[in-house]
Design brief:
- About 5% of the residues lie in helices and about 40% in strands.
- By secondary structure, the protein is mainly beta.
- It has two domains: about 180 residues, no CATH class; about 290 residues, Neuraminidase (6 Propeller).
- A hairpin with a 5-residue loop joins strand 16 and strand 17.
- It is globular, with a radius of gyration of 24 Å.
Length: about 500
């Protein structure tokens, strides 16, 4: 065993986290941020150091996970005098200039080891030709050595840098990245890796109307619930907005932070999830004017993603009280809490407007291997559990299903597992006519139908530009139900919420 292998084998307590894994798992877009979330208002990250990329020959380590990047046709020309290896050491201690290092891509990807992380918190890699293509790795502060999982990247040139906080890739010029990895694939392993990571057939291209200028199909009227949060200002997170004058009033101030707010069918009450971001969520109900706060759940499990079932006085919610996160139901006074469906793992969900059917994101709880995340697909079923129908079967990560008022369609958001882009899709409730409504390299997610079904509100970071980290700062947008006429619905600063970093419409009703 050579020296590098010996040192790697002695590592214990490794706490690496791929930012993408966090985005898909513990901090799904649309959920409250986990600890160490996004940047404060797109502030520039302080440069904590520059990278030295040095040759190592380690092949040690087992059971490390795999991160996928989209394929690229570029190939690197040979560089004279540049060594080649399948592993590199990243040194974040001192700013030094370095010669580009060529790394040979093989079926095991590229192994990276962070040497003496010091004040650096994150290592970012960026494609200099495609600024939106980047990936970040959290590193635990003062740890003297830190191994990062194997990384498979497209052949070509990648910029690498050490930074102290998460940030938007667009905020740092090329000069802020201290080193270059020149990646080659002479044996043609990358196509093989790609084949092994196919999670399903790709979804269709966006509809022709996507982004096209057009007038809105319906009036911007009614009232809506707005959820807005920022890392450093808890409380007052749920607001009621009157359209079209955009008057806004806070209606929930906790406990702690509040999220997943939803009106009761008659609009007289609001159910929501409350608690600090580092605590297990609990479910509460309050009158729509903020009075009569009642806590419905109280346990050590996670209880969240609460929804009212129309036509009843029941609430559905997600919990891991009996194992994997799946869906439960209870009366609106907290009584008769019971498991709703016999499904290995379930996530975001919404009842049809008449309460007869449930749309939900489900997973078989198994990793497909080859870098694919758990199989999150869109399902519908009858309220009694019968008639289970799978609506999607693809390589995207589905979330946020929402029914059209006439029950004929379901809008949802989805992301390709190789980047941070989210788009809005719509599908008929019988699984036919799947359409992609938006085509944007950043965040388009959290769709909500207008009361007349002619428009869809969603959250987007179009105002600031796409971010390829989990810290995506969206504000409300609106478009026609066919994907045309996209426009900004609400400027947070204009309504006094300028310090909020993320906001979206959670419920939209008539006045």
């Amino acid at each position: 065993m050579d020296d590098m292998e010996k040192r790697l084998s002695e590592l214990d307590g490794i706490r690496t986290r791929d930012v993408w894994d966090r985005a898909l798992d513990g901090s799904r877009r649309g959920d409250p941020p986990s600890d160490g979330g996004g940047p404060d208002g797109h502030s520039l990250a302080r440069r904590a150091g520059v990278i030295v990329v040095a040759l190592t020959v380690s092949a040690a380590g087992a059971g490390l996970l795999f991160a996928q990047f989209a394929s690229d046709e570029r190939r690197t020309q040979p560089l004279d005098g540049v060594a080649t290896s399948s592993s590199v050491t990243i040194d974040c201690r001192e700013p030094v200039s370095v010669t580009p290092t060529k790394v040979r891509l093989d079926r095991d990807g590229v192994r990276m080891v962070v040497e003496n992380a010091g004040p650096a918190d994150i290592v970012y890699m960026r494609d200099p030709e495609k600024i939106e293509r980047s990936i970040g790795f959290d590193i635990p502060g003062e740890t003297s050595r830190q191994e990062i999982r194997p990384l498979s990247i497209s052949p070509g040139e990648w910029l690498v840098g050490c930074f102290s906080t998460p940030f938007s890739t667009y905020e740092h010029p090329v000069e802020d990245y201290g080193a270059r990895l020149i990646v080659e694939d002479p044996e043609g392993n990358w196509p093989i890796i790609q084949d092994e990571q196919t999670c399903g057939e790709p979804l269709p291209a966006p509809v022709e109307t996507a982004g096209r200028e057009a007038p809105l199909a319906g009036p911007l009227t009614g009232r809506a619930l707005l959820y807005a949060w920022t890392d450093d200002r808890p409380g007052d997170d749920v607001f009621e907005i009157s359209l079209p004058n955009l008057s806004i009033a806070p209606i929930l101030a906790g406990p702690g932070q509040a999220w997943d707010a939803t009106w009761s069918p008659d609009g007289s009450r609001i159910a929501f999830v409350g608690g600090g971001l580092d605590e297990d969520g609990e479910i509460y109900v309050t009158n729509s004017d903020g009075t009569g706060l009642t806590q419905l759940t109280d346990n050590d499990a996670t209880d969240d993603l609460v929804e009212w079932r129309p036509g009843t006085d029941e609430l559905s919610f997600r919990s891991n009280r009996d194992g994997p996160l799946t869906l439960y139901v209870m009366n609106a006074d907290g009584s008769d809490q019971r498991r709703l469906l016999d499904f290995p793992s379930a996530d975001r969900h919404e009842w049809s407007p008449d309460g007869s059917r449930l749309a939900f994101v489900g997973s078989d709880g198994k990793d497909d291997g080859g870098g694919c995340h758990e199989d999150h697909e869109l399902y519908v079923m009858n309220a009694d559990g019968s008639g289970l129908l799978r609506l999607t079967d693809d390589e995207y990560y589905e979330q946020d299903p929402t029914w059209s008022p006439d029950r004929s369609q379901i809008a949802f958001s989805a992301s390709n597992q190789s980047d941070y882009a989210w788009d809005v899709f719509v599908v008929n409730a019988d699984g036919t006519d799947l359409r992609r409504l938006t085509d944007y390299p950043g965040l388009d997610g959290d769709p909500t139908w207008s009361p007349d079904g002619s428009m869809i509100a969603f959250s987007s970071d179009r105002a600031t530009g796409p971010s390829r980290t989990e810290a995506q700062d969206g504000t409300p947008y609106v478009m026609n139900a066919d994907g045309s006429g996209v426009r900004h619905l609400l400027n947070l600063e204009a309504v006094g919420l300028g310090d909020r970093t993320r906001a979206w419409i959670t419920d939209w009703r008539t006045g």
